[in-house]
Amino acid sequence: MKNVLLTVLILAFIATGLFASGEPEAGDEPIVLKAADTHAIDYPTVLGILRMGELLDEWTDGRITIEMYPSKQLGEEKETIEQTQLGAIDIVRTSVGPVGEIVPELNVLSLPYIFRSAEHSYKVVDGEIGDELLAKVEDHGFVGLGWYASGARSFYNTQRPIRSVEDLDGLKFRVMQNEVFVDMVNALGASATPMAYGEVYTALSTGVIDGAENNYPSFYTSNHYEVANYYTQDEHLRVPEIILFSKKTWDGLSADDQALIRRAAAESVPYQREQWDMMAAEARRQMVDAGVEIITDIDKQPFIDAMAPVYAKYAEDLSEWIARIQAVD
Question: What pLDDT digit, counting tens, does each position of 55-67 carry?
């Protein structure tokens, strides 16, 4: 009789959930998100993702965390983008440039002189246009979470100051692995050499290339200033950074967790941009102290005029996007 009673009690406990197995509820299982960035741990884009992680950790009492892999630990940008598509990486911060090879609509953000200023670029990507472009990446294995600052990209080289389009003639410049960048440099009379970011220092040192183009912080933190002494502030590109989440990982998350991740990404954006502005100012100061000649006395209009064939080439596919961006006040 006692054995029968014990059996009945055990069955009752199981039925009511009081006889627990010790396994966590589905929504309570820890989630560790693997994130990648090519830059160092103190770079503004890395700090932005780390801020995302801090917020998620705080909001979920440690249930959702981000494990950051900076400094190309998981590969160059192109490799980490591919790994994110496959779900081997959960979050990647990358320039829009190489993503444009996968999502053609994003190439509009890489067109030379498409943005009039930093403020103009923020109005575009933080508004309706930016939201629509983020949605485009979902057809390619990603979820777009937001846009980080990357400043203005300008030319730097080892040979001479560049004050006019003619000064670019015959020089070999590294560009990102993106057709728009290649067309831009070639239209200016220079020779474009697509190359991974991590190879640029050696290529500059050995004369494989004469120059490259990037923003102040990247130019300084990559130590390119040690071998390229001329930096021309022509600000031809303001290519945003994009936060991409693996759709493979995303589809396995609850709607509540997806909402938390979107919120954390959104709240990290102003923090990242603030870090960017501080680092850009400091990088410029360090460049001057190191003896880099920063050329600002240039007439940008001939550079802009030289972009006519570039815009003509992409006008058919991107004309509507171009017009909408230019119309943003």
Answer: 999 999 999 999 9
Pairing of β 230-237 and β 211-214: unpaired
CA distances from 227 to 50, 281, 292 (A): 31, 21, 10
State pLDDT tens for residues 104-119: 999 999 999 999 999 9
* Cβ pair 215, 280 in contact under 8 A: yes
Cβ-Cβ contacts under 8 Å for 86 (sequence gap 6 or more)? 141, 246, 248
Q: How far apart are CA 100 and CA 6, in angstroms?
A: 66
**Residues 125, 239 contacting (CB under 8 angstroms):** no
Cβ density class 251-281: b for 16+ within 10 Å, e for less: eebeeebeebbeebbeebbebbbebbeebbe
**DSSP helix/strand/coil, 170:** coil
| Contact indicator for 101, 177 with CB cutoff of 8 Å | yes
Q: Which of 131, 148, 144 has its CA nearest to residue 246?
A: 144
**Beta carbons within 10 angstroms of residue 126's beta carbon:** 15
* Domains of the chain by residue range: 28-149+239-283, 153-238+291-327
Q: Six-digit token pair at 60?
A: 């979920």
Rg (CA), the chain: 24
CA angle 146, 147, 150 (to 5 degrees): 160
Supply the pLDDT for residue 210.
Answer: 98
Give CATH for domain 28-149+239-283.
3.40.190.170
How many angstroms separate the CA atoms of 260 and 91, rounded? 14
The domain made up of 153-238+291-327 is a member of CATH 3.40.190.170: yes
Q: What is the pLDDT of residues 231-251, one digit of tens each?
A: 999 999 999 999 999 999 999
Q: pTM for the complete prediction?
A: 0.83
